[in-house]
Design brief:
Blueprint lengths: L7 H11 L17 H6 L19 E4 L9 H4 L23 E4 L44 E3 L5 H21 L30 H8 L5 H13 L13 H13 L11 H13 L8 H13 L2 H14 L2 H19 L1 H4 L3 H12 L17 H13 L3 H20 L1 H4 L1 E3 H7 L3 H4 L3 E2 L13 H17 L6 E6 L2 E7 L7 E9 L3 H10 L1 H4 L3 E11 L2 E8 L8 E12 L4 E10 L9 E2 L1 E11 L5 E10 L5 H6 L1 H23 L6
Parallel strand pairs: 5-12, 11-13
Antiparallel strand pairs: 1-2, 3-4, 6-7, 7-8, 8-15, 9-10, 10-11, 11-12, 12-14, 14-15
Helix pairs in contact: 4-10, 6-8, 7-8, 9-10, 9-15, 13-15
């Protein structure tokens, strides 16, 4: 605890005033802090970087997968009367049509069992049984970490919820101790979340949250491509980001990116023009990348807090940023650090880059930021306003803010490797429970009761039963939301201690149900372009398997690894299909890449409509790691609708390709 932000003489005042008054919402009390006796008596629990069970000490193992299909084909088992079963497939057998390579690394997951109650529905509380309690009587983890810094991307939604509140308390204490002027007390106040339209195709002036819903990344793909092009071809251009390009050429590139995104060729433009377009994108964001509230906190932290503890204050501010802003900032700082590493070629080091880009990223009080409604044609008016301020009483303040923001941005670039992490001692203070870790149950324990009876088949049958109950009750208790792209959305709150809602999206697909089943089971890569690799870990029965796959992320963000037990069944009475999927741990499912996500519930219900088509209902409750509860509560529904829309569009593309005319 010696390296925490809050000094010993501040602890009593801060924690007594802010945390001890409300027992339901409090995070810490003075009794919760670790003592030397606690650290010595507690069993060793490693942080999330160690190797998983069945692969102790494994570092990097390569494996080549054979060329097969994605899973047990529904067509092989659609005829229930034949009773035929496919041949047993060995472990480590990839079920994929194309050959894919991978590199295995040790899994860091501990095991947690999630079970649904016998008479509960999806909209009712789900009872959780944590098998780890059998080994440890305490409800809290005590860290003896192998690493001193834990990346934010590895944290569960429960951990981030706790750490954000603790970060706000520590940052407030430091600013009060060192006479900082920033007011950070309202950073985590609930704000009105605007419903951003997914049909808005504009890049410049668009919202970062909309980019996450549409593309899965905080920055638009064209902006990321522009950065990659500069890294490949522009590192020898002297004065990059300092020298300005011709305005007509910059306007032409911007117009092409807005109207003909698929036909943009960056090789036709100079590096200076591309750099100006990147600056223009960040300048025209509805809100600065570092937000109005946290820009003041950043500048005040850099100005007032001593250098030896300043990094911890900056880490706390990064954790308080909205998820989409933090991801966009992480990508941009990663790019700037690479550019600064090539300073011997273009003569732009960290300080020079910061002077050019700080006014674009920070919300400076003396710089009037043009609103989206008056942005076009307002450049001359903004320059005139700035000149007038410079000649009046605001001139000195403007110069000071420019200098301070550039120095602060220099430090952000310099400490990029440690900026988006959480100190291990801060994790120790929180003493996270097994519920907040949110790790899945071993596959052989799925469906077992307290007496050790049951199996995964009982769990699957219970999931089928709850789906049928919710249908009979006509989804009583669900909250309806606005439809997105003809996808009906609703959510239900689940009272099991995990701050995640259960979302449901429904749409119609103009193909028979068995075709939809085959697309979801075997052809996931056709509608989810983020799939990097996948393999079957174990074949449990003709319709059930343990499957592992990896989805890609934009560098420097890490990939997401999924290990799920999935099964499908056919109901002849209603001619419908159900796919049940949930995260499990398996000794052979070593971590292929990145961070392992947790699927608490993933259900596909495929019903036959009167005209012979399909109605697809997707129930989803997933912890993708590295995101706060605000994302799941306000934006995840539209993210789910975008995924369902991609499934529906994959059939439209198939129908178009089927009827294309070819010359004879």
């Amino acid at each position: 605890f010696a390296s925490c932000l809050v000094p010993d003489d501040i602890n009593d005042k801060v924690f007594d005033n802010r945390l001890s008054t409300n027992s339901d919402n409090s995070l810490l009390a003075k009794d919760d802090f670790l003592t030397e006796d606690d650290m010595s008596e507690s069993p060793p629990v490693h942080s999330r970087g160690g190797s998983g069970e069945g692969d102790s000490g494994a570092c990097c193992r390569s494996s080549t997968y054979s060329e097969t299909t994605w899973g047990p084909s529904p067509n092989e088992s659609l005829n229930e009367e034949t009773g035929s079963t496919p041949e047993d497939k060995p472990h480590f057998h990839l079920i994929r049509r194309n050959t894919m390579g991978s590199t295995d690394t040790g899994s860091f997951l501990e095991q947690v069992e999630l079970m649904e109650g016998h008479n509960s529905s999806l909209s009712q509380p789900i009872r959780a049984k944590w098998h780890s309690f059998q080994r440890q009587h305490s409800f809290r983890h005590v860290f003896k970490p192998l690493r001193t810094l834990i990346p934010i991307e590895e944290l569960s939604v429960g951990q981030i919820s706790v750490l954000r509140k603790l970060s706000l308390v520590k940052l407030t204490a430091q600013l009060e101790l060192h006479n900082g002027k920033a007011n950070v007390s309202r950073i985590l106040k609930t704000r009105k979340h605007k419903q951003h339209s997914l049909r808005n195709k504009t890049i410049f002036g668009g919202n970062l949250a909309t980019n996450v819903l549409k593309h899965g990344t905080a920055l638009p793909p064209l902006i990321l491509q522009a950065m990659d092009h500069l890294k490949a071809t522009g590192m020898e251009k002297v004065g990059l980001f300092r020298r300005t390009a011709a305005k007509p050429r910059v306007a032409s590139l911007r117009q092409q990116m807005e109207t003909n995104a698929d036909q943009v060729d960056f090789s036709e433009y100079s590096s200076y023009e591309i750099a100006d377009v990147i600056k223009l994108y960040f300048r025209e964001l509805p809100e600065p990348l570092l937000t109005t509230k946290l820009s003041e906190a950043l500048l005040s932290s850099y100005e007032c807090i001593p250098e030896e503890v300043r990094l911890q204050a900056l880490q706390a501010i990064m954790l308080l940023l909205p998820d989409e802003n933090r991801e966009a900032l992480q990508c941009f700082l990663y790019f700037l650090k690479y550019v600064a590493s090539q300073k011997h070629s273009h003569q732009m080091d960290m300080k020079n880059l910061s002077v050019c880009l700080a006014p674009t990223l920070f919300a400076l009080s003396t710089i009037p930021r043009p609103s989206p409604l008056t942005r076009r044609g307002s450049l001359k008016r903004s320059n005139a306003t700035n000149s007038q301020n410079l000649l009046t009483v605001g001139g000195n303040k403007e110069v000071n803010e420019h200098v301070l923001s550039s120095k602060c941005l220099t430090e952000l670039i310099q400490h990029y490797d440690k900026l988006f992490t959480v100190a291990a001692d801060m994790m120790q203070v929180c003493k996270f429970s097994h519920l907040e870790f949110g790790d899945p149950v071993p596959y052989h324990d799925l469906g077992r009761d307290k007496n050790g009876h049951g199996s995964y088949k009982d769990y699957i049958d219970e999931c089928m039963t709850t789906l049928a109950k919710d249908q009979r009750k006509k989804y009583r208790g669900w909250v309806q939301c606005n439809a997105v792209k003809d996808v009906e959305l609703a959510y239900s709150k689940v009272d099991d201690g995990i701050p995640l809602k259960l979302w449901r999206g429904t749409t119609e697909i103009p193909v028979p149900p068995y075709v939809v089943l085959q697309r979801l089971w075997e052809e996931k890569h056709l509608w989810d372009g983020r799939i990097v690799k996948g393999r079957q870990i174990a074949q449990l029965d003709p319709h059930t398997e343990v499957f592992q796959y990896v989805t890609s992320s934009v560098p420097p963000l890490t990939h997401r690894d999924h290990c799920v037990l999935r099964s499908w069944k056919f109901d002849p009475s209603t001619e419908s299909y159900v796919i049940v999927s949930t995260s499990v741990s398996h000794p052979h499912a070593t971590l292929l890449a990145g961070v392992r996500c947790t699927e608490l519930a993933m259900r596909y219900l495929i019903e036959k409509t009167a005209d012979g088509n399909s109605q697809l209902s997707l129930y989803c409750r997933v912890d993708m790691r590295g995101r706060s509860p605000e994302f799941y509560n306000h934006a995840f529904g539209r993210y789910l609708a975008s995924s369902i829309h991609r499934i529906r569009d994959s059939f439209k593309r198939s129908l178009q390709l089927e009827y294309l005319e070819t010359p004879v």
